Every structure is written in C-alpha cells, then in structure tokens.
UniProtKB/TrEMBL annotation:
Top-level taxon of origin: Bacteria
PANTHER family: DOXORUBICIN RESISTANCE ABC TRANSPORTER PERMEASE PROTEIN DRRC-RELATED
Topological relation to the membrane, as annotated: Multi-pass membrane protein
Record's protein name: Multidrug ABC transporter permease
A cellular component annotation (GO) from this entry: membrane
UniProt domain ABC-2 type transporter transmembrane: residue ranges: 23-312
Organism: Streptococcus pantholopis
C-alpha cells in the first residue's frame, strides 16, 4: 500500500506540471456541472399536448385543472400528426381498460401513467430532490472524457517505459495501475463532488443529509469512471491514439445512454440501459426517490468497477510479458 501511495503522490506532482490539464480539471469540468444544474432548474415553458381517447368527464376536468394540454379524439392519432409532433403521447380509456402510448420515450410514458392515476405533478411542483438526478445525469456527460484525459500520464509512462523501471525497484503492475486509479479517482472526485454539492445547495436548497448523499454518490460514480478509463487505456495498445480512442468511446457512451434524447427503438433503448452513465443515473434516481443507497444498480456498479480493474491488471500483465 505504501508503494501505491508513493506512486500516487508522484502522479499528482507530475499532473500539476501540465498546466492545460489542470485548467481542464479545475475549470472546465465544474463549468459543465454548473451548466447542467442551470439547465435543469430552468422553467419548462414548452407545451406538451396529449391525445385523449375516451375517459370520463371527471378525468377531463382533472386535465383542465392541472393545465395539461390535450385533444379529445375518437381514434389513435394519424402518422402525420405523430411525425409533425402534434402529440407527445396518447391516453386511451375505453371499456374499463387504460392504454398509454408515449412518443417521447420511457420517462414520458411514466409521466402519462401518473396522469392516468391522477398523481402527476408538473415540473414547478416537483421538489428539489427529484430534480437533482437529472442535473447529475447531465453533468456526467464530461466525466468519462475527463477520466480518459487524466490517463495521459499512464500513456506517457508506457511510451517512456517508466513502469519497467519501477518494476526494477519492486513495484508490481497491480500496484502501478492502482496508483493511477487512485490519482484519477481523486482528480475526478474532488472538483466534481465539491461543485455538485455547492450547486445542489444553491439551485435546489438541499439539506445537509442530501449533501452527504451527493458526496457519497460522487465518490462511487467517479470511482467507476476512473476504473473504466484505466481499462480503456490499457486495452488500446497504440500509445499515440489511446486518448483519442478513449474519448471517442466516452462520447459514444454519452450518446447511447440517451442523455440528449430518448430512443424509440427497443434495441437502442436496451443498449442505453447498459451504458455507465445510464446505470449511474438509475442508481442515483433510486436513491433520491426511495432512499435506498445499496439497492438498485449499486451492486452492478461495484461489479463493473471490480471487473474493469481486474481486466486492466490482467491485460497489462500480459502486454508486459510479451514486451519482456
């Protein structure tokens, strides 16, 4: 353990000699977090219109009372109306059976289901603890990108064969990779966690208990992304393109997670649930809605973290054996 922390300290010193890296970590990433909270806190002025088929007079009175825009139809909207986005969903109440159709993905389907049960609350009525997961989800768009950029020290060491010299003085490959994991983890967690806590307090008026939850969430999520960055840069043997490939993977995982729009294709929607950003969001969402920290995707996150590091150590040991 002492050797791991010694390498960890050296990595910190070397990182601060790279001014551009420090600027990106200390300034850019917090700005992205602030922007995510600001965007989430903006009032929702868009009017979503739903098509209502059947339903009692009491139900339509509920829609009017809650200022939900709707049209009474006799049949499902035509394709032209769907393509033109005249309706965001359909609620069909006939013969005692309720059918919900969403044209905006699974999240909007859940909102339509709440409308049918007359338990829906508009964005203005939602409490702040329900808004945090969405802000946190947006802020994760930068997390894996920054985690990969932090691995440039590892890539430089591989080019200069630094790890071989460290093995001469008794440092194992697992200890060497663990030191890079710790450095990456700290470099992500400190600015990311701190700014999330501050923004949650400023934008949503969080309590001390919620702030502690945010610190724990940030610690675990940044650990996961740090381990994934170590695995990505270990997998890519070409030193010249390791960071570039890592950032391409990071950008694609953001897009495939559905962060910037839900998928209407079932295959893509299933893929989105496997992305680390969506896995983390579902876990955070579970915490703030049900208070269950170790439930939901918590075990899956721990498994992904462990498997990523074990695979990285195995691949690194094998590549060093071939090069010896």
């Amino acid at each position: 353990m002492r050797k791991i922390f010694k390498c960890f300290q050296i990595n910190i010193t070397r990182n601060f000699s790279d001014n551009m890296g420090v600027i990106f970590s200390v300034i850019i990433m917090p700005l992205v977090v602030v922007a995510a909270f600001y965007a989430t806190n903006l009032p929702n002025n868009t009017t979503e219109k739903i098509a209502v088929i059947g339903g009692s007079e009491a139900f339509t009175q509920y829609l009017d009372k809650n200022q939900i825009s709707y049209d009474k139809l006799k049949v499902i909207p035509e394709k032209q109306d769907i393509y033109m986005r005249n309706y965001s969903g359909v609620i069909k109440k006939q013969n005692g059976k309720v059918t919900v159709i969403s044209y905006k993905g699974s999240q909007y389907r859940r909102e339509l289901q709440l409308i049918t049960k007359q338990k829906y609350r508009s964005n203005e009525e939602k409490n702040n603890s329900e808004k945090f997961p969405n802000a946190f989800y947006l802020s994760m768009s930068i997390l894996l990108v920054q985690a990969v950029l932090n691995m440039r020290l590892f890539v430089n060491d591989r080019i200069n064969e630094t790890s071989k010299r460290l093995r001469v003085i008794g440092i194992k490959n697992s200890q060497y990779l663990s030191s890079h994991l710790l450095f990456n983890w700290a470099a992500l967690f400190i600015p990311f966690g701190l700014v999330n806590v501050i923004c949650n307090r400023l934008f949503f008026g969080s309590s001390m208990t919620e702030d502690l939850k945010v610190i724990l969430i940030s610690f675990i999520v940044t650990g996961l992304f740090s381990a994934l960055a170590v695995l990505i840069c270990t997998l890519v043997k070409d030193n010249g393109s390791a960071i570039m490939v890592g950032n391409i993977v990071a950008c694609f995982t953001v897009l495939l997670s559905g962060m910037f729009g839900n998928f209407h294709n079932k295959i893509l929607e299933a893929i989105s649930q496997c992305m680390p950003q969506k896995i983390s969001f579902n876990w955070v969402n579970e915490i703030f809605h049900h208070g269950d920290i170790v439930g939901g995707n918590f075990l899956l996150i721990l498994i992904m973290f462990t498997v990523s590091m074990l695979m990285a150590v195995g691949l690194y040991n094998r590549s060093n054996q071939y090069s010896s």
